[in-house]
Amino acid sequence: MHVTAQELCNYLNGKLEGNPNAVVNRPAKIEEGEYGTVSFIAHPKYEDYAYTTQASVLLVSHDFKPEKPVTATLIRVENVYACVGTLLQKFNGRKYRNEGVDSQASVHSTADIADNVSVGAFCYIGSNTKIGSGSVIYPQVFLGDNVVIGENVILYPGVRILHDCKIGDHTIIHSNTVIGSDGFGFSPNGDGTYSKIPQIGHVVVGKGVEIGANNVIDRATMGATQIKDGVKLDNLIQVAHNVEVGQNTVIAAQTGIAGSTKIGNNCMIGGQVGFVGHIEVADGSKIQAQSGVARSIKEEGKAWHGSPAFAYNSFMRSQVVFRKLPEMAKQIAALEAKLASLTTKD
Amino acid sequence: MHVTAQELCNYLNGKLEGNPNAVVNRPAKIEEGEYGTVSFIAHPKYEDYAYTTQASVLLVSHDFKPEKPVTATLIRVENVYACVGTLLQKFNGRKYRNEGVDSQASVHSTADIADNVSVGAFCYIGSNTKIGSGSVIYPQVFLGDNVVIGENVILYPGVRILHDCKIGDHTIIHSNTVIGSDGFGFSPNGDGTYSKIPQIGHVVVGKGVEIGANNVIDRATMGATQIKDGVKLDNLIQVAHNVEVGQNTVIAAQTGIAGSTKIGNNCMIGGQVGFVGHIEVADGSKIQAQSGVARSIKEEGKAWHGSPAFAYNSFMRSQVVFRKLPEMAKQIAALEAKLASLTTKD
Amino acid sequence: MHVTAQELCNYLNGKLEGNPNAVVNRPAKIEEGEYGTVSFIAHPKYEDYAYTTQASVLLVSHDFKPEKPVTATLIRVENVYACVGTLLQKFNGRKYRNEGVDSQASVHSTADIADNVSVGAFCYIGSNTKIGSGSVIYPQVFLGDNVVIGENVILYPGVRILHDCKIGDHTIIHSNTVIGSDGFGFSPNGDGTYSKIPQIGHVVVGKGVEIGANNVIDRATMGATQIKDGVKLDNLIQVAHNVEVGQNTVIAAQTGIAGSTKIGNNCMIGGQVGFVGHIEVADGSKIQAQSGVARSIKEEGKAWHGSPAFAYNSFMRSQVVFRKLPEMAKQIAALEAKLASLTTKD
Fold first, then answer.
1. Which of B84, B214, C245, C322 is the most exposed place for a label (fewest CB within 10 A)?
2. Shared-domain flag, residues B309 and B252
3. Between B and C, how many CB-CB pairs are < 8 A?
4. Whether residue B16 is found in the same domain as residue B115
5. pLDDT of C155 above 80
6. What is the pLDDT of residues A295-341, one digit of tens each?
7. How far is A253 from chain C (nearest CA, A)?
8. Which residues of A touch B172 (CB under 8 A)?
9. Which helix or strand (DSSP H or E) is residue B178 part of?
10. Domains contained in chain C, number
11. What is the 3-state secondary structure (H, E, C) of B106-167?
12. Same domain, yes or no, for B25 and B140?
């Protein structure tokens, strides 16, 4: 695809400075901007690249004031970061060949698959399972019995959705993620052994959700583990039985949420965070990476850090002192010695 | 399935209070208890729900003394939590259609599969591999060469068991777990590069084990990585080569155990814990979530916390002071100032 | 396979002491050394086993001076650990039956597969995808469109390599690892919801790389996520979009690297480490397990620990004091009391 700077500028509702006929064929990061690419400066720390980049076109904000000459054609826009998304959409060539249900898929006779659905080779579709219009099921996916897949869902290769689970419209699930494995529930028998507690619930994933690769979302013991509309989960995340993740909450990779915990709406959760079970986390909470949340969080919109986690600012202040602990120990010893000598002197 | 309160009471060996003819069709958590459900109070903190729940039947302990009127029929039992397991078993409708070996499975001619075994579509069964009576191999499972699967084993979709590994009777392995991938062993060549150390051992999983989804258990360099009888592993757990996990030990999600470490029997290990390699952890150890165990633990039955981990109570006491470090730094500065002025005065 | 001590000695360029005709059929760890096995002492802490082992042959270093009689035939070598690798290679019986492209694989008509390649049952090979000579693709692997697999690559069952990704020669990827899932990029819409930023880049994996099981390496937003030659990744590792991992860097299990971070060459990174996004880590850095790297590391070859991480030695010194914090708090209180009484006395 070849596009002129002027065409891009119109497409992005920007303001052009420079050669409107410059031609680009793909977007590139500013460090990798070659002739024929369109690049962008979404953060001031990258501004220096503006003067050296080979990119033919550069998206910048209205505020950008070059301190040196810039050879690229500039397109000034309101929100550079948002425009990058629009730009990538324009250049996104990904197409899945819709070839209906592959002859090498195994589809139960009672499954109900809408007309314009792709089901790839080596998919297994169980009894009474429904797949809504426009959905793309890549090869090698497993859908158990009584599964409901909404419309325009994308399931990448190796996704496993066990019996009775539901996936909402426009949701995307990446490769090798497991939805509806048994919750981790055992009752001790008194002799050291455990008996399995059957997990007879399911998982309900809302609309417009994106779930990364190699995640696990366990089914509820009874009732439903719930991932609400608009949630974004990164990779390798653990969601235990009966957990609820509130609308539009975003969770980075390798975080784990123990059983029955409820995460509020619009939370931002870093990577490798752990939540103990049976707690509630207020809407808008921000949890720093690697934190361990051991208690319910009741105040909305606050930032937390540490393991066990407490208020972000307090943690950072404690952490600064932590680095000086050996020095502090010496100060105390010195004080004790001084005071002892003082007392002796007295 | 519809059951009367009296039938449930008999089934659970309980004591009934209220309407013996109340009918229920499924279990529900107390917060979600609707008309026609049987719910339960397994922990005092949920007692308030007893007075407002719409559940038709309620399991409670013999000790439960209602402070307000309860409309549900009560079934009093010795151990509510254990009875919930029994109850779920009664309502557990999960059935896998035993259809023998699917025509779309790839089974090597030398594989030895007992008569009443299910092997789903798109399974690959290698040479000389044995599957014992009553086992259910869901679709899309891989069993390499010389694998031994015991009796009444359940392998969920996407499980990969590489060559030479053994799985004991009554063991359950959830989706996309990998057993027998190569241990992580390399020897440095002196020029910065590494040579692979062949991993010629295998993995032996005992009886009555449950292994969650997306776990990885690497094969031993030589000999066996061992998961002993009755072990319960949650999801996304890493077990490195030559590790041993002792009988009835329970490990929560996202924990990792480095090479050659031996975890004792009856341990309880939280989520996101890390163990360094080549250590031993005594029987009955309790490791708090997110701890890092960097040394062998010799005393049995103790609790540990922190990274590096030390005695749980000590950690918690240190952690309390950690939060006050900035204040403590000020106290020391004040002491120094005071003492300096005192000395000057002198 | 049966080998005499003399044959082994010649094979390893060692120096023999004892019976040159002792016969062994497999290697064993020293704790498990039985009659007919060859074992080794690679670390002084295992020396005591030399006097009690039943192993028929023992590899030891030239420095080893037995303090008691040893019954095993000794083979003295320069570098025991390296010889163990050579030894395991000799006994490594793993063979994949090269059976060409399985009739139950789904291969697009435009795929370009070299002659002596194995493609197992239930593999899906997309359009324009190339597989180089000598590569082994185990069953149930997914290769999307325009994928390039080099020569002598091994892909274990359940590996998913999405469109446009490239894998270098002699690289090994273990089961259920995902390469080329979408990077985690969303732009906020202002009303709490997010829009997906298309991820139109890819992943480039170098030569001689080994990637463990259940890893995830996301594709770049634009450009490439890069795993350079000779990198070794353990299991369950997260590599976000646009990350670069430098040559011969070794990363232990469950570590996560956030977007656009560049890890240098020859780094050694422990398990469960987290790296924030957009930082650079100097060549030769050593990061202790469970650390959280929150800033760029500019000095080469240093060791780091903690979350947030700082210099390893400093961390360890602070950690020692951390354990004494409750005592320290008492010391300060005592100092304050003493000083107060002193001041009063004055």
1. C322
2. yes
3. 198
4. no
5. yes
6. 999 999 999 999 999 999 999 999 999 999 999 999 999 999 998 88
7. 7
8. 182, 196
9. strand B178-181
10. 3
11. EECCCCEECCCCEECCCCEECCCCEECCCCEECCCCEECCCCEECCCCEECCCCEECCCCEE
12. no
In this structure, the answer to whether residues C108 and C81 fall within a common structural domain is: no
- Phi and psi at residue B58, to the nearest 5°: -135, 125
Question: For A220, how many CA atoms within 13 A lie in the half-sphere containing its CB?
Answer: 23
Q: Which two tokens stand for residue C324?
A: 């004494």
- Domain co-membership, C51 together with C138: no
Is C195 in contact with C187 (CB distance < 8 Å)? yes
Residue B143's nearest CA partner among B122, B157, B154, B129 is B129
Of A64, A91, A118, the last residue of a domain is A91
| Euclidean distance between CA atoms A113 and A115, whole angstroms | 7
3-state secondary structure at position C339: helix
CB A111 within 8 A of CB A93: no
Range of the domain at A38: 3-91
Cβ-in-10-Å burial (0-12, 13-18, 19+) of A44 comes to exposed
What is the average pLDDT across A255-284?
Answer: 98
Q: Which residues of B touch C339 (CB under 8 A)?
A: 335, 338-339, 342
Predicted local distance difference test score (pLDDT) of residue C94? 67
Q: Give the CA diameter of chain B.
A: 97
A29, A91, A214 ranked by CB distance to C216: nearest: A214
Q: Two tokens at A106?
A: 């195994």
- Tell me the CATH number at C203: 2.160.10.10
Q: What is the pLDDT of residues B286-311, one digit of tens each?
A: 999 999 999 999 999 999 999 999 99
Could you tell me which chain B residue has the CA closest to the CA of C252? B184
CATH of the domain at A12: 3.40.1390.10
CB-facing half-sphere around the CA of A69: CA atoms within 13 A: 2
Residue at a domain's end among C73, C91, C109:
C91
Q: List the one residue out of A264, A42, A30, A155 whose CA is nearest residue C187.
A: A42
Same domain, A246 and A179: yes
* Tokens (6 digits) for A30: 């500013």
Q: Has A202 been annotated as catalytic?
A: no
Same domain (yes/no): A87, A47: yes
With beta carbons less than 8 A apart as the criterion, state whether A180 and A165 touch: yes
Mutation pick from A251, A254, A316, A343 vs chain C, by most beta carbons of C within 10 Å, is A254
pTM of the predicted protein model = 0.94
Mark whether C83 and C126 lie in a shared domain.
no
The H-or-E segment that residue A319 falls in is helix A312-323
* Chain B CA closest to residue A337: B339
Amino acid at C128: N
- Closest C-alpha among C216, C232, C132 to residue A237: C216
Taking the alpha carbons at both ends of chain A, their separation in whole angstroms is 89
For residues B156 and B213, is the Cβ–Cβ distance under 8 A?
yes
**Residue type (1 letter), B341:** S
* Mean pLDDT of the residues in chain A: 95
Name the residue of chain B whose CA is nearest to A320's CA: B326
Q: Which tens digits make up the pLDDT trace of B322-340? A: 999 999 999 999 999 998 8
Collapsing DSSP states into helix, strand and coil, what is residue A30?
A: helix
Residues contacting C34, CB < 8 A, separation 6+: C28, C54, C55
User: What average pLDDT does the segment C30-35 reach?
Assistant: 90
Query: Is B328 in contact with A328 (Cβ distance < 8 A)?
Result: yes
